Each structure stands twice: as C-alpha cells, then as structure tokens.
Amino acid sequence: MNDQQLLRYSRHIVLDEFDTDGQERLLNSHVLIIGMGGLGSPVASYLASAGIGQLTVCDFDDVDESNLQRQILHRDTRLGMNKALSAKIELEAINGGCRINPVVERLEREALDQLVTSVDAVVDASDNFETRHAINRACFQSRRPLVSGTAINYIGQLAVFDLRDHAEPCYACLVPEDTPSTVDQCSTSGVLAPLTGTIGSMQATEIINFLVFGESRLSGRMLLYDARESQWNAVPVKKRGTCSVCGSI
Length: 249
Ligand SMILES: [Zn+2]
What we know:
Number of strands: 8
Structural class: alpha/beta
Strand content: 15-25%
Bound molecules: zinc ion
CATH class: Alpha Beta
Largest sheet: 8 strands, mixed
CATH superfamily: NAD(P)-binding Rossmann-like Domain
Strand order of the largest sheet: 3-2-1-4-5-6-7-8
Radius of gyration: 17 Å
CATH topology: Rossmann fold
Shape: globular
Number of domains: 1
Number of helices: 10
CATH architecture: 3-Layer(aba) Sandwich
C-alpha cells in the first residue's frame, strides 16, 4: 500500500484483527455483484469505498424513474441508461482506485459459470428466483461464497452460503428450485427505500467478513428484518438431503 492508501483506509487498518493485511486482502479481491438495483446500490457503494480492488457489476436493465426512490447509485440525468453503466460512473466517483467491470447483458449459464469462477465472492442482489437459482448453482459448482439478500415490502432477508464447503447448505436448500414462482416483486408489493440500504449494507459487511477474516459467522442462518415492526429474527438454514443442487454430495 502506498501512503495515500494508508491514509484512505486508515480507519480499517486501526481496527482490531484487520490491520494492513486485511486491507491488502480487500485491495487484491474481486467481487461479483449481480443486480444494480436497490440492494446492489449500497453493496457496490460500500465495497468500492472499502477498497475492494475489483468489482464486476451486472444488470441488463435500464434506469427507470420508479427506481430512483431507492436505487441510490442512479441519477435523474441517467434515466434510460443501462444500470451497470450508470453504476460504473458513480462507483468510480466514490473510489477511483477500484476497478469496475460493467456487464450489461443477461448472463446465460456458461457465461455466469465463467464469471463466478473468476471472482473471490458473489453477491446476489437480483430480484427473481430464476436468477437466484442460477447464481446458486454457479457458486456451488465453483465453490464460491454467496451472500444473498432480498427486500420486498417491509421485509428484508439476509443469508450467507459458504459454498466453498459442500457440507454447507445452499440457496436451493432454503428455497427449492421447484418452488412455484409466486413472484412478489417491488413493482406490485412496493418496498421501503431504506430497507434496501439496511440489507445491502449487511451484504457488503458479510463479503468483507469472508475476504478479510475468511469466514462469515452468519453461515447456516438467515436473518429476517421487519422494518415496520422494528424486529430482527434469525432462523437456521439446514442442508436438505433431497436438495436438487447440493443434496447428492
Ligand atoms: Zn442445497
């Protein structure tokens, strides 16, 4: 690290157990974030400012007026622009030392597998089950840690799947792949703006736990946050022997 980096990241470096080694690990890391919406915005903002060396940010969708209530990476001036490209502009303004690779197309299976293999950890900030399951399969196959979040209505969920270890549960253990897709999307159910910030910030924290400390202590549990009731709950996530992704291992 040079003098400028030592100053920039000094509030990390003085943390117990973090030190310059922890910051070096972040600077040498590459994280994939899928979805540059309500969750992806805070995840990417904090990972960029925290000094992750490289972020690959994916979204095939364009910025819409109705996104701006919560998707804080995007701006009025970028309505109609692809979200990954819009995010790149903002993330480079946050930290010019962070390399941002935008991916503007929908990732099909092989491309997703390839991308997941090339990174250290993956954030699922997508908004549909099909994508979530595709990400889970790719992370399982490539043995990459997966930090998953959702925010709909007043309810947020955060779960961590340490798929480096195939004895750990995966996302499909929690939500089986054949679950009927009763999609509960923001467009129909609404979502409280700062709820996405709460869950997204926690996703960024768990990624840093993996990168700096080698583990997330949330592995095997899911946190549920009810923003209307101001209540947190933790529920265990168990490996299912019949899971279509990890069950046969
Ligand atoms: Zn599973």
